[in-house]
């Protein structure tokens, strides 16, 4: 009975999802039952933090090297090589850039921790507050100031890398022209000369610099007006000492997460232009598909995603009210039937409640972070290991973030496994409803359709399966559906044959009965005739 229940769960939710759910429940039970305080008091925190970050650094370095070798060694089709040559170079360049950024970031982190830069900033901050008359009774105010200073310095260090990363993903003029022409033939674009002007065209366009700076200002203001009050409440809850403190904070964070999940559209309006999809064939087709699949469609929007990124996308917006958002370059790049397949895929996410499940898993991970942090936040040895001479919640939050980033990367790998199963399930839902996912995926990937990433690299970094993996899954789903339909047809044919045989048997039985009745009647008639003759003789 138990084995049947487990197998049914695995078939319904997927093996990885069930294992992660069980693991999350185990984490919650372990947090409540086990006492890990003695272990935390003997932990060499500084060496442990450096060691964890070093492990992640070399792991990602190894994965990047594998990815570079895989892309270079792949046999690309000669007929399309000129078309994808510069796309491959961009991918390799992005890998090298990411590795350079990670190396510099790792070195800076080690130097900051080793030379006590955080301690120096804290002492300067302490001196300034004392100078203006704010003593240590203003713990929350001083703590918030320290966190803002660290956050601002970190943002300034990352800003050049972030600007270059956004610059790489900016659509070039050629990409825009290709997106505007849905009937574009890629074989007409083989001259490398046209490709070499991409970077030059980008440098001539100065609008992206203004856009990045303005976006950074808006994000800073949002974090200031939205994140500051939330962080203040969280710090206040940590400063107050009471039983099961961590559980109260987890409940607060969960409520905030549910609230902001539906507030995303209001924030997204600050960065992109949204407009209601005008009354056209595409809108009518999407509405009809939603009615067919019993999806509670609220509205259909288009977003000017092409001004920021070169890839196309579509997503479901809203937690309580469901609306579709289509990138403008998606509408230009895909046909109506292909867009309907993408919409069917998103409806599959809604039907299987993938967003809710993903949110619950994230809350478990956040609860894990809060529980572990609450275990070390008042531990004197934790601060002494990094050069601080007293306990402070704001300092502890910064130090623990350095340590927990290692586990966050590993948890991201687990989350990616779950989200990959979600994508497979949504693809299957679209295919089962007669939508052509394969053509839609190939059209969305564009030149990236020929790129086959390293398996371990994609498992670690990609939240979605690769194109090849999804196409293989689609072929298996179609094969399964065709075999099930053929078996159904065979069963129907067998039933029809059985019915025909039964009818023939019934007809034969009826004929036999009729013949018997006729024979009996004839016998009776003969008997009557004999009797009549006998009477005549009498």
From TrEMBL:
A Pfam family per the record: Peptidase_M48_N
Active site feature: 346, 427
This protein's UniProt keywords: Endoplasmic reticulum, Hydrolase, Membrane, Metal-binding, Metalloprotease, Protease, Transmembrane, Transmembrane helix, Zinc
Composition-biased stretches (Low complexity): 177-189
One GO BP: CAAX-box protein processing
Taxonomic superkingdom: Eukaryota
Domain CAAX prenyl protease 1 N-terminal: 96-166
Cofactor binding mode and count: Binds 1 zinc ion per subunit.
Region (Disordered): 172-196, 482-538
Spans through the membrane: 12-36, 42-63, 104-124, 144-161, 219-240, 246-264, 359-383, 395-414
PANTHER family found in the cross-reference section: CAAX PRENYL PROTEASE 1
Protein name per the record: Ste24 endopeptidase
Source organism of this protein record: Dictyostelium discoideum (Social amoeba)
Upper taxonomic lineage: Eukaryota, Amoebozoa, Evosea, Eumycetozoa, Dictyostelia
